[in-house]
Model the fold of this input.
Amino acid sequence: MNALALLAPLFLIFEIWQLVMCERYLGIKQIARGSDPREMGPSEPVSFLWTFTIALYAMWTLALLATPGTRGPAAGLVVTTLVGYAFRRNCGLNRVLIILTFEGSIRIVFVGALAFAAWRRL
Done:
């Protein structure tokens, strides 16, 4: 395992944070209220941090694809993200939370497995 795989716990925390944020802005209470999450989005600093971390996460995943020993989980992350995006793009707002929850859970499994393998080999 290389040093890139040792960053997996940080991205595992980010994945869990994303699930919490999705529930906050797209959750059952928001659906019941009939509110549009685009009208009540997060503050500027939170939006910046979230976007910046997503960009880092994407670069990290692509770097893992180029590294032997981490290609499997990295490919799983890429495929899960692409399939999840395709489903989210073609469904209504009330189904996005369900898809994001499944997608996030699958990504947590991949990142968690990568983190476990990397830290176990230290």
Q: What stands out?
A: The chain has a mean pLDDT of 87. The chain has five helices and no strands.
